[in-house]
Amino acid sequence: MHSNNTIMPTYGRLPLSFVKGEGAWLWSDDGEKYLDALSGIAVCGLGHSHPAVTATICEQAGTLLHTSNLYGIPKQQELADKLCKISGMENMFFSNSGAEANEAAIKLARLHGHNKGIDSPSIIVAKHSFHGRTLATLSATGSRKVQAGFEPLVSGFIRAPYDDIDALKDIAANSKNIAAIMVEPVQGEGGVRIPSADYLSEVRELCDREGWLMILDEVQTGMGRTGKWFGFQHSTIKPDVMTLAKALGNGVPIGACLAQGEAATLFKPGMHGSTFGGNPLVCSVALTVIKTIEEDNLLQRAEELGEYIHKGLAELLQDNSTVLSIRNRGLMVGIELDRPCSELVQIALNNKLLINVTADSVVRLLPPLILSDEEAQQIIETVAKIINEFTTK
Ligand SMILES: Cc1ncc(COP(=O)(O)O)c(C=O)c1O
Question: Which ligand 1 atom is at minimum distance from the Cα of 253?
Answer without folding.
Answer: 10
